[in-house]
Amino acid sequence: MGIGVSVFLIAVGAIITFALNIRIGVLDLDIVGWILMVVGAIGLIMTTLVWGPRRRAVVRRTPGQVVEEPTDLP
After folding, report:
1. Where are the domains of the chain?
2. Helix/strand/coil percentages in the chain, nearest 5
3. What tens digit of pLDDT does each residue of 14-70 get?
4. What are phi and psi of 6, to 5 degrees?
5. Distance CA 70, CA 61 (A)
6. Half-sphere exposure of 63 (CA within 13 A, CB side)
7. Reduced to 3 states, what is the DSSP secondary structure of residue 28?
8. Is residue 72 over pLDDT 70?
């Protein structure tokens, strides 16, 4: 789940929870909205944890030096 999908779920959940006042049988849409917001927040946190800490390497080269850079970083 990416950042866009997470923000979308949070927005839809907030709209369902705070803007709509509808009850469909035994289904309470307020609970559905809260669940969507929680799932979106968890997705946003997980996305930032996975994509946030990127390893950035600084390669310093001097003239005439050959440096091999690894192509398969974990």
Report:
1. 3-51
2. 55, 5, 40
3. 999 999 887 788 888 888 999 999 999 999 999 888 887 666 666 666 776 666 666
4. -65, -45
5. 15
6. 0
7. strand
8. no
